[in-house]
Every structure is written in structure tokens, then in C-alpha cells.
Design goal:
97 residues; 3 helices; Alpha-Beta Plaits; alpha+beta; four-stranded antiparallel β-sheet; single chain
Length: 97
């Protein structure tokens, strides 16, 4: 039985530069960086727990981690304003003839 993959927004606040680099390296294996400390990842339940376990080995008590589930419909409306070409442009709902 395979579990379905869902989108997640992963954000972190890490105070030590060495741990910061290690956490970013772990996350780059799971998703796409959209901002300095924010990633989007398409994860199954098992992948999400594995990610938490991997990051748990890196993070310290003073660090913060947020893994937020996003529905597919919400993910379709997500747009980045400062990165061109990564997301498809909005399609017009009508055409003027």
C-alpha cells in the first residue's frame, strides 16, 4: 500500500551557521527552496516523518521548525513574486476578440 504525497511548506529558524547549512542540505534532498529558509516539499506521511527525524539530528533546542501541510488546490494558487519562470503565469479566464 502506497501512501499519497501531499504538499508541505517547511520553514526553519536556525541560529548557528553550521546547523543552518546542514539543515538546508537535508531539506534540499526533500524539496525545492523558495526562499532562504522556506522549502516546498511533496511528501508522503513516511517521508514527512523521515524528514523530521533527519532534521532532529541537526537542530538544537534553540532552533525552530515548521512543517505545514498545504492542499493541492492551495498549492495551485501559490505564486512567487520575485522569481521569474519558476511558476506558470496565470491564464486569462476569457479572451477579448
Amino acid at each position: 500500500m502506497t501512501s499519497s504525497r501531499r504538499w508541505h511548506l517547511v520553514s526553519y529558524d536556525i541560529r548557528d551557521p553550521k546547523r543552518l547549512r546542514r539543515a538546508a542540505k537535508v531539506l534540499s534532498g526533500f524539496g525545492i527552496r523558495i526562499q532562504y529558509s522556506v522549502f516546498t516539499c511533496q511528501l508522503s506521511d513516511r517521508d514527512r516523518e523521515r524528514l523530521r527525524w533527519e532534521l532532529g539530528k541537526v537542530l538544537a533546542e534553540e532552533d525552530a521548525l515548521l512543517i505545514f501541510g498545504i492542499c493541492n488546490q492551495c498549492m495551485e494558487t501559490l505564486r512567487e513574486l520575485d522569481v521569474k519562470g519558476r511558476w506558470p503565469p496565470d491564464l486569462a479566464g476569457y479572451a477579448i476578440v
